[in-house]
Design brief:
The complex is a heterodimer of chains A (about 130) and B (about 400). Chain A has about 130 residues and is of the alpha+beta class. In chain A, about 15% of the residues lie in helices and about 35% in strands. Chain A has 2 domains: about 40 residues, no CATH class; about 60 residues, Roll (CPE0013-like fold). Chain A contains 2 helices and 10 strands, in the order βββαββββαβββ. In chain A, strands 8-5-6-10-9 form a 5-stranded mixed β-sheet. A 3-stranded antiparallel β-sheet of chain A has the order 1-2-3, with helices on one face. In chain A, a hairpin with a 5-residue loop joins strand 5 and strand 6. The longest helix of chain A has 12 residues. Chain A starts with 9 loop residues before the first strand and ends in a 9-residue tail after the last strand. In chain A, about 30% of the residues are buried. Chain B is an alpha/beta fold and about 400 residues long. Chain B has 3 domains: about 170 residues, 3-Layer(bba) Sandwich (FAD/NAD(P)-binding domain), CATH 3.50.50.60; about 130 residues, FAD/NAD(P)-binding domain (3-Layer(bba) Sandwich); about 90 residues, no CATH class. Chain B is built from 9 helices and 28 strands. In chain B, the strands form 9 sheets. A 5-stranded parallel β-sheet of chain B has the order 11-18-12-13-14. Chain B has a 5-stranded mixed β-sheet with strand order 23-21-28-25-26, with no helix packed on it. Chain B has a 4-stranded mixed β-sheet with strand order 10-15-16-17, with no helix packed on it. In chain B, helix 1 packs across helix 8 and helix 4 crosses helix 5. Chain B is globular, with a radius of gyration of 22 Å. The termini of chain B are far apart. The chains are: A alpha+beta (about 130), B alpha/beta (about 400). At the A-B interface, strand 5, strand 6 and helix 2 of A face helix 2, helix 4, helix 6 and strand 26 of B.
């Protein structure tokens, strides 16, 4: 098994700059062969997207006693893309309590990613 | 807030911020996604995080804040007529006023979609507030018209919250959203983006039951033969923003027909002495960082005006020529500039392999070359004060030209 070739090439658009190069990626040996990129950033982006795509999830959770019914949250670090909906389901079952400060941990180590979900806003509660 | 902070830094003692909502921060509070602050704070923040950091700076000062307060009118004599539940009707007099009312969304009425009037048709930003602040999901099966950034962000947001987004439709042959948003909001969730297509009819009696969509020709007219029905219970419209200048009109401030915002000078002074404007009420921005920057300019202008260190005449005008849809500021007084002047502009169409040149007479004083200029991305130029002084020409002309 010298050459393991991924026969169907993957297409994606590079998001490193406004150019938006159309990339075509083929796996060859242990390397990703990227074409269509006009600079080196495109190659790096494609390799990351092919091996371990990650995203920061931003959403809201319910808050009791807050100024509004919801408080915005995010994952402190990017999490594996395939865990997005697992995390969304966990967020739907969580309830925060006011007062809460921006940066407070809402969920520790969400979905075993090693990443915390934190509040992205301060809510001191209803003023009246 | 940025204007108030800048005025404070320039030794203005009595500053009041009037806010209609229950908290400071404006639209940032509902923009819970990240991507804010890369320029201003040098890190990627969510909307509420960005506004919180600025609010913290406000709280360190003696700047007064009046929330839950509606400005009804701004008189030609600079009297602010406002109302809230604590004080009732108020008349407030100020030496200088900075307008920062932001913008409103274009509605179904503005683009005249045929059909019935069922529940379930929302402006995308309204839906964003319902989901992110009030905690309501406006619908379960969604068609989004318009592929600007708000439309794209809402496609992802509705999907994450369990709705099915059938498609995002765009009447133009290209999306006006950032490529990053197309990838991370649509491609990540396999939501189709259908270009050169619009909604021709909304169906449903009580609730939206579906939409008829059709491709458009080069004149943007729907082609009847291509009509297709998509069942859905919700339509989100992301079809443009209009600066909210009702208050500016009442004060008799001159408006630029291209930006729909006040005509302003280098420190964002309007046609009305002592009234300044900044942010989306002036021109629809892409990045909040530039809004903060513009707010600081207006705050500085207001401070200089109060300190009698402000020259209200103009020395130069800017002219949006070939391919440029508008330029802010429209007028310039070099005497109020320290060393650099920033011009903001947008191009009318997509231009590939082009160069934007800034002319003062025959002389090019700044230029920018790109593989691609997009109408969706605001372009800025730094001009040197020295270049403007050392030339007798008074018209700054900006045009886009092919690279030869």
């Amino acid at each position: 098994m010298k050459q393991t070739k991924n026969i169907t090439p993957t297409n994606m658009v590079c998001i490193c700059c406004p150019l938006g190069c159309s990339l075509t990626i083929i796996k060859s040996d242990n390397e990703w062969l990227v074409t269509g990129n006009k600079c080196l950033r495109g190659k790096k982006y494609a390799a990351e997207e092919m091996t371990a795509p990650k995203r920061v999830v931003t959403s809201t959770v319910k808050i009791a006693g807050g100024l509004y019914p919801m408080i915005p949250v995010k994952t402190e670090q990017p999490i594996p893309k395939e865990k997005i909906f697992t995390i969304m389901n966990i967020l739907a079952s969580v309830r925060a309590v006011a007062p809460i400060t921006m940066g407070d941990i809402v969920i520790k180590n969400v979905a075993d990613t090693g990443v915390n979900v934190v509040a992205t806003k301060t809510d001191k509660g209803m003023p009246f | 807030m940025a204007a108030a902070l800048a005025a404070h830094q320039n030794h203005i003692k009595n500053i009041l911020i009037i806010e209609r909502d229950l908290e400071l921060g404006g639209i940032l509070n509902q923009c819970i996604h990240s991507g804010f602050g890369l320029h201003h704070f040098k890190k990627e923040l969510t909307g509420p995080e960005y506004s919180s950091l600025i609010i913290q700076e406000i709280q360190k000062t003696n700047i007064e804040v009046m929330i839950n307060t509606m400005v009804l009118k701004l008189g030609e004599d600079k009297t602010i007529h406002a109302i809230n539940s604590d004080h009732g009707y108020m008349k407030i007099n100020a030496k200088a006023i900075v307008l920062a009312m932001g913008c409103r969304e274009r509605t179904r009425g503005a683009i005249r979609i045929h059909g019935s009037r069922p529940a379930g048709v929302y402006a995308a930003g309204t839906a964003q507030r319902l989901v992110n602040i009030d905690g309501y999901l406006p619908g379960k099966r969604v068609v989004i018209l318009g592929s600007g950034d708000i439309g794209l962000i809402m496609a992802r947001r509705m999907t994450l919250e369990g709705a099915k987004v059938e498609a995002v439709l765009e009447i133009l042959p290209y999306s006006n959203g950032l490529t990053r948003n197309i990838v991370q909001c649509l491609n990540d969730f396999a939501i189709p983006l259908i270009l050169k297509t619009t909604i021709t009819k909304i169906h449903g009696a009580e609730r939206v039951e579906g939409v008829t969509i059709a491709q458009v020709d080069d004149q943007l007219s729907p082609i009847t033969a291509t009509e297709k029905f998509i069942p859905c219970d919700t339509v989100l419209l992301s079809v443009g923003l209009i600066p909210d200048n009702e208050i500016s009109h009442s004060a008799g401030i001159a408006i630029d027909q291209r930006t729909n915002g006040p005509i302003v000078g280098e420190l964002r002074q309007t046609s009305k002495d002592g009234i300044f404007a900044c942010g989306n009420v002036l021109q629809v921005h892409d990045l909040v960082d530039f809004v903060s920057e513009e707010g600081a300019l207006a705050g500085l202008g207001a401070a200089k005006y109060i300190n009698n260190d402000f020259d209200s005449s103009f020395t130069h005008t800017t002219i949006a020529d070939n391919g440029i849809s508008y330029i802010v500021p429209q007028k310039i007084n070099v005497k109020n500039i320290t060393d650099k002047l920033k011009l903001f502009m947008r191009v009318k169409n997509i231009f590939e392999n082009s160069i934007i040149n800034v002319y003062l007479g025959d002389k090019i004083i700044a230029s920018k070359k790109e593989h691609k200029f997009l109408p969706a991305e605001m372009i800025s130029f730094d001009l040197k004060k020295q270049d403007l002084i050392n030339n007798s020409e008074k018209q700054i002309i900006v045009k886009i030209e092919p690279i030869i």
